[in-house]
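Risk register update: the risk of archive-format incompatibility is retired. Evidence:
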Amino acid sequence: MSNPGFSMLSDLSRMKNARSRRLSSWDQEGRNQDYWLIPAGETVRLADIRGPGCITHLWTTQFCRRVLGPGLIDPTLGNYVAPVFEIHNALGLNWEVADPHYYRKVLIKMYWDNADEPSVIAPLGDFFGVGHSMPGSYSALPMSVSAKPEESFIFGGSAAFNCYFQMPFNERAIIEVENQNDVPYGQYFYVDYEQYDAPLDDDIAYFHAHWRRENPCKGWAPGLQVNSPEVNIANLTGEGNYTILETEGKGQYVGCNLSVAHFQGSWWGEGDEMFFIDDDQWPPSIHGTGTEDYFNHAWGMQDKKDLYNGSALHESKVPGYQVSYRFHLTDPVRFDKRLRVTIEHGHANQLSDDWASTAYWYQAVPAKGLTVPPVEDRIPSTPGNRTPTLADPSTLSDTQATAIADAAKRNAEYQRLRDVEIRRKLERTREREARNIQFGQSE
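Archived output:
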């Protein structure tokens, strides 16, 4: 039997009967258009791999742009080049903006061993620790995000994502992305994996990840100041806590990220974590002392990023927004029957903020029934969108009205040509998808 193990330094000197392989978005025609264009409303399979094996690393970067007006360059000329204009505007040549919410509109799904339901389902950004569709750089052991300063802490900013969680499987592994946006987006990716010549050991479990959200949490006194005497009441049941994970079976919880949009204007924490393991009623097997304490900080969250815990986005960078992470890599939470990971939203669930989380765990049998809310219920809490508004036609001069009409005609032709380019790219995406599946199923 094979045991993929965790590839830390102690594992590097061990010889293993394994074949290292990669599926990626590389331009299979040998040119430089190394991304796949994912159609609006469609699903594309990044990987379909024959087992036994183990996915050892995922890397992605992506873009999603909305065209606000026609460019001066024929969009069909970009058919075989890197998407320079699809990342940055060249003023006067093109006019596009990043879709601010697309990290929440795209889902990543993973299926193990021919399961008909996903063991991983989460918005693409949140899976990698990008909360609120707003990337901030961090480097933890199992996850990292890397964003340029000018792309950091803005909605829809571009970034590189990495995941190093081990994802073993015996028969088959499938990774898909589902674009629930109304426009296409571009996906670069690596899926690095090993294939083995013998089945996995019996004690190897399947990787899981699940996203949840409450917007707003059902707080009983959001208008009262946090830590005031009036809110210092007893919570001796855990009823009404925010649920990070609820699952049945045998496994081990290995961490989460938590995104909070805080509307009250003071402090969003003070909530204790409560882990109900197996047959726990009250008290739970694990009871903590406060939100920042669960994330291994104190006196609030610090703008600090460590290997096991930290702030991917700190509220001092963007007031009102916080993204925290905690990985249980040396202290996994074991369960034999079931597990419910919860945390109070404010002491005794006082606050009514926007909370969203991604939980990570391993389980002996792939879980069932993991779903996420519809796309309209995943959109981050934001100050507004970036759609330009037009002037009242009755206030325009004839010259102004003619200029606007001419721009509309030029934009219609530009969009027609751009649609030609998109269709060509989509055809190549489907061709590359088929080749990747063939490669993943080969010996």
